[in-house]
């Protein structure tokens, strides 16, 4: 059986056009026989074969490479090299010779065909469980503009990932970030948006003023960021599709920074500083009406919403050192959740709701860590001179963060790591960057 | 009592002696600091009259001679005695030069998260603002902002640089062109705290 899916005719910037899906394919087959669990125990990646895609050779090769890079980039899959493959099937329709693939120890097999028709491409793929000798899930067809060929490839990889891990996928997603150029004491920064793998970079601001920490809305259509455009730190809100921004905060004598959207996009929580004291405020995006959520002489910053929008996790030094707290939106005393050694900051609530990722400083070393929302099960995923600012992949299995190197020539780079702490890798970018914000899985 | 200004001279002399067996370089005459500390505060003891005035009423003079920067210990936002001496000079200068406004920029070292450091820098800037206001500078003449760790003064990654980066910098700007009458009256304001209203 085949399912057909049409990718949103992507205007270049279309992030979250909801009309896209016809019909929505199942994310995993019902009796998924082949499965890799993302747990601490997994050491050996699953071996999969992704032989050359059929159809129009040039575009087929490019799509295949992106699919392979997506899958192997997770650290969960090992690609069987082409030299070891048995003779290639004559066509996409030809029956699979499971024995031939078993002979090279393939556990999974991806077969696909890519056809280009003018400005459109059509991609069909199937996934096979070689061990049990049967298809895993339905075949699927994606129709897209040829210019969106990478998205089509990510969609295939997402299907494969979801079927083999049982998790929601994340490859067809984008990341907002800050590019950094120039010397360390006069850094030039601008905001960009890229595919999760570093491709298709689009610049959202020019370099004329200092900009910090963009944050995607959950639908991926808007960005919040801090800008020194007025000479003072204030928050701007940007429509991603039109790349048009407007100031959201304009109060004189009050700095505004660390903005973040509520999941429904209606509210912005942010840090408002006045007279040296920083509290967390909540603003109604459409009316500008706002109120204080904290009222303490401490530094309260880096707010992040729970996935249901009912609670906010934030950083406060009210106990003497920066620690993590959770509060409801309707007042009440915040509950401290971090109690370990060191200083905690930049909490980010997982989209799955189960974990909070954070930055932790112990002595002169920095870590990205996770804990459950009650503060239990704390674990460190990374360690370096300076790691900070984790952002969650839309499936809650991977975080991206900034790692800076020391010294006058030190530079920040984006890295990602999965929640087991394995598979730490730098993003494939040929420039320095910081402050990633991972957007949603695109429809 | 060792004067702050003579200390580096002596130190340089000592270093010169220690470095090799060459004759000591001629020691420069001691510099008399017109703002020499007298304990709790600082009292201006220099000459306000004559040609000094023209040069003094510049942002460059403020930066180079008054001192635009105060430093903070790690993770601290309270003013040190050294910082208070510099800020007393800044306040006195601002009082003499009512045509200037000030922006106090707070900074933090690179260890620490971006957002916490923005808030930390704001605390430092605010501490400076409060001190200047307590010394008589009109609150409306001073704004604050924080650069967090975005604009380090020194770029290495050790305490020697961090100590220079934990700072608040007072940047003075001559206010928008004043009416002619105000300019003509300006010299009369020097030395007094008559700049209120600007």
What does this entry show, briefly?
Chain A: Pfam families: PD40, TolB_N. The complex is a heterodimer of chains A (about 450) and B (about 200). Chain A is mostly beta strands and about 450 residues long.
Structure description:
The complex is a heterodimer of chains A (443) and B (198). Chain A is mainly beta. Chain A has two domains: 2-165, Rossmann fold, CATH 3.40.50; 173-441, Neuraminidase (6 Propeller). Chain A has helices at residues 57-72, 98-103, 149-165, and strands at 2-6, 46-49, 54-55, 77-79, 108-117, 120-129, 134-135, 139-145, 173-181, 188-195, 202-203, 211-216, 222-227, 234-239, 244-247, 255-261, 267-274, 277-284, 290-292, 300-305, 311-316, 323-328, 335-336, 343-349, 355-362, 365-372, 379-380, 386-392, 398-404, 412-418, 425-426, 432-441. Chain A is globular and about 75 Å long. Chain B has 198 residues and is an alpha+beta fold. Chain B folds into two domains: 1-33, no CATH class; 48-187, OmpA-like domain (60s Ribosomal Protein L30, Chain: A, 2-Layer Sandwich), CATH 3.30.1330. Chain B is 41% helix and 13% strand. Chain B has helices spanning 6-19, 52-56, 59-67, 81-96, 114-134, 159-165, 180-189; strands at 69-71, 100-107, 142-148, 167-174. Chain B has a four-stranded mixed β-sheet with strand order 1-4-2-3. The longest helix of chain B is centred in the middle third of the chain and has 21 residues, at 114-134. Chain B is globular, with a radius of gyration of 19 Å. Chain B starts with 5 loop residues before the first helix and ends in a 9-residue tail after the last helix. Residues 1-52 and 181-198 of chain B have low confidence and may be disordered. The interface between A and B is large, with 45 and 31 residues. Chain A: It is found in: Periplasm. Chain A: Residues 34-134 form the TolB N-terminal domain. Chain A: The Tol-Pal system is composed of five core proteins: the inner membrane proteins TolA, TolQ and TolR, the periplasmic protein TolB and the outer membrane protein Pal. They form a network linking the inner and outer membranes and the peptidoglycan layer.
């Amino acid at each position: 059986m085949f399912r057909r899916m049409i990718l949103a005719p992507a205007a270049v910037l279309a992030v979250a056009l909801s009309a896209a899906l016809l019909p929505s394919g199942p994310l995993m087959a019902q009796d998924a026989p082949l499965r890799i669990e993302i747990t601490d125990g997994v050491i050996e990646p699953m071996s999969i074969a992704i032989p050359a895609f059929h159809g129009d050779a040039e575009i087929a090769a490019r799509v295949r490479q992106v699919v392979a890079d997506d899958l192997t980039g997770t650290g969960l899959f090992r690609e069987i090299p082409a030299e070891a493959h048995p003779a290639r099937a004559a066509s996409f329709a030809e029956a699979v010779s499971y024995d031939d693939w078993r002979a090279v120890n393939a556990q999974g097999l991806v077969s696909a065909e890519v056809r280009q028709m003018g400005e459109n491409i059509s991609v069909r793929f199937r996934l096979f469980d070689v061990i049990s000798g049967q298809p895993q899930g339905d075949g699927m067809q994606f129709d897209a503009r040829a210019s969106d060929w990478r998205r089509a490839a990510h969609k295939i990889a997402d299907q494969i990932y979801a079927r083999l891990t049982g998790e929601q996928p994340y490859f067809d997603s984008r990341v907002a970030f800050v590019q950094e150029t120039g010397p360390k004491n006069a850094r030039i920064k601008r905001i960009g948006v890229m595919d999760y793998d570093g491709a298709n970079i689009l610049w959202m601001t020019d370099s004329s003023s200092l900009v910090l920490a963009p944050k995607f809305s959950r639908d991926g259509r808007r960005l919040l960021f801090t800008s020194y455009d007025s000479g003072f730190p204030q928050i701007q809100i940007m429509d991603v599709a039109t790349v048009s921004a407007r100031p959201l905060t304009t109060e004189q004598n009050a700095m505004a920074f660390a903005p973040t959207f509520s999941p429904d996009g209606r509210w912005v929580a942010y840090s408002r500083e006045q007279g040296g004291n920083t509290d967390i405020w909540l603003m109604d995006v459409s009316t500008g009406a706002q109120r204080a959520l904290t009222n303490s002489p401490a530094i309260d910053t880096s707010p992040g919403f729970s996935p249901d929008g009912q609670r906010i996790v934030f950083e406060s030094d009210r106990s003497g050192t920066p620690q993590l707290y959770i509060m409801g939106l309707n007042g009440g005393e915040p509950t401290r959740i971090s109690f370990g050694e060191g200083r905690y900051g930049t909490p980010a609530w997982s989209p799955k709701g189960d974990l909070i990722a954070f930055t932790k400083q112990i002595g002169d070393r920095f870590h990205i860590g996770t804990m459950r929302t009650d503060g239990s099960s704390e674990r460190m995923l990374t360690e370096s001179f300076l790691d900070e600012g984790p952002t969650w992949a839309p499936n809650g299995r991977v975080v991206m963060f900034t790692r800076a190197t020391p010294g006058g020539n030190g530079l920040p780079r984006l890295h990602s790591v999965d929640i087991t702490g394995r598979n730490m890798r730098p993003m494939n970018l040929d420039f320095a960057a910081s402050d990633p914000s991972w957007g949603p899985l695109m429809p | 009592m060792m004067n702050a200004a003579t200390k580096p001279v002596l130190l340089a002399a000592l270093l010169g002696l220690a470095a090799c067996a060459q004759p000591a370089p001629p020691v420069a005459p001691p510099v008399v600091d017109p703002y020499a500390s007298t304990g709790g505060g600082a009292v201006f003891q220099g000459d306000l009259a004559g040609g000094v005035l023209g040069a003094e009423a510049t942002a460059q003079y403020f930066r180079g001679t008054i001192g635009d920067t105060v430093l903070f210990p790690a993770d601290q936002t309270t003013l040190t005695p050294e910082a208070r001496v510099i800020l007393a000079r800044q306040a006195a200068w601002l009082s003499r030069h009512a045509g200037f406004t000030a922006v106090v920029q707070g900074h933090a070292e690179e260890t620490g998260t971006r957002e916490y450091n923005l808030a930390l820098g704001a605390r430092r800037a605010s501490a400076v603002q409060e001190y200047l206001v307590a010394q008589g500078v009109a609150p409306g003449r001073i704004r604050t902002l924080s650069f967090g760790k975005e604009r380090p003064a020194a770029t290495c990654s050790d305490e020697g640089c961090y100590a220079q980066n934990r700072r608040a910098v007072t940047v003075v700007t001559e206010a928008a062109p004043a009416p002619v009458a105000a300019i003509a009256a300006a010299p009369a304001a020097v030395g007094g705290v008559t700049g209120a209203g600007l």
